[in-house]
Amino acid sequence: MTLPADEAAFAALFERHRREIHVHCYRMLGSLHDAEDLTQETFLRAWRNRERFEGRSSFRTWLYRIATNACLDTLERRRAKPAEVAGGYSEIPWLQPYPDHLLEEIADTELGPDSRVVAKETIELAFLAAIQHLPPTQRAVLILRDVLGWSAKDTASLLDTSVASANSALQRAREKMQRRLPARRAEWARDAAPTEDERELLRRYIEAHERADVSGFAELLSQDVSFSMPPQPTWVSGRDEVMRFLTANGFGSPDVLGELRLVPVRANLQPGAANYVREPGDSSFRAMALDVLRFDHGRLVEMTAFPPDVFPAFGLPLALDR
Question: Lower Cβ count inside 10 Å, N or C end of the chain?
Fold first, then answer.
């Protein structure tokens, strides 16, 4: 295969794979904004080095090689490590949610869609947060081997190391992920589509917020529910503690917090809601936070609230008139 010498034609070829490369960079970095930058960097590196493409692998595989190395370069410069705090996702201040509508844009290949690219268990916030604790090389090996299904030989070749070293890195990465991931994660539903129960729970979640119904909201929570607010160092665990924290910050008191409007969203193949607040005297509802939720056995077990700067990525306005 000879790559196009014309930049527009080359860009059109790259565009077929842009979204899955974007997801790959997101898994590596945990940040939606960084993933966008690194996807563009992958395109630029591929364009500049197109004459080096020898066709021994597919164009798609070649792009994954470039993207992985670009992400490793970024991680080397970043050098930031997750903080060792009590728990939750606030220990990873760069963590951002991934809009489901972007996952839906991944084009089908001639052999059909590659389900590994958008597998729910490797795009959930729990997985994304856990993988951020791995050293860069272990992170790359785990994604290439366990997410994308690359061989040990191809993975070692990309990382310019031996097969034995790549296998060792994979074993260490798996052990660390097992310690980081929730104990009951294997029991979570693997179906990416929201269930009827999940839709009903989200409806009740939204209704409780808009009605300032404290008791109705408390009924949704599991005993061990957790709440975090990356990038803020906030993590609260346990129903009573979460309710105390939220009410202390105005939940259930429209005269203090303001009137709420929530818009349902999907992020990381999980349900969520975009929160807007109309403060006393204001004529519009302003973007406040985007909640990504996890329900389990009919109860809310995890809430992660992200700041409103993620709203544009979800196609959400920063203000509502009503």
Answer: C
The pair of three-digit structure tokens given for residue 28, joined into one six-digit string: 């590596």
Rounded Cα distance between 256 and 198, Å, is 30
212 torsion bin: left (phi>0), alpha (psi -120 to 50), beta (else): left
Q: Could you give the CA distance from residue 314 to residue 310 in angstroms, rounded to a whole number?
A: 7
Burial bucket for residue 55 (CB in 10 Å: 0-12, 13-18, 19+): exposed
Helix (H/G/I), strand (E/B), else coil: 151: coil
- In this structure, are residues 20 and 117 in contact, taking their beta carbons and an 8 Å threshold? yes
Please give the Cα distance from 161 to 156 (Å, whole number).
5
Q: CA-to-CA distance for 165 and 156, rounded, in angstroms?
A: 8
Express as a percent the part of the chain with pLDDT over 90: 74
| Structure confidence at residue 80 as a pLDDT band (50, 70, 90) | low
* Residue 273 near residue 194 (C-beta atoms within 8 A): no
Each residue of 185-224: pLDDT tens digit? 766 666 667 788 999 999 999 999 999 999 999 999 999 9
Tokens for 189, please give them.
């539903």
Per-residue buried b or exposed e for 202-233, using 16+ beta carbons within 10 Å of the residue's own CB: bebbbebbeebeeeebbebbbeebbbbbbeee
Q: Average of pLDDT values for 165-172?
A: 97
CA separation, residue 194 to residues 75, 227, 265, 271, 290 (Å): 34, 21, 11, 7, 18
Structure tokens of 139? 């992170």
Of 266, 264, 227, nearest in space to 243 by CA:
227
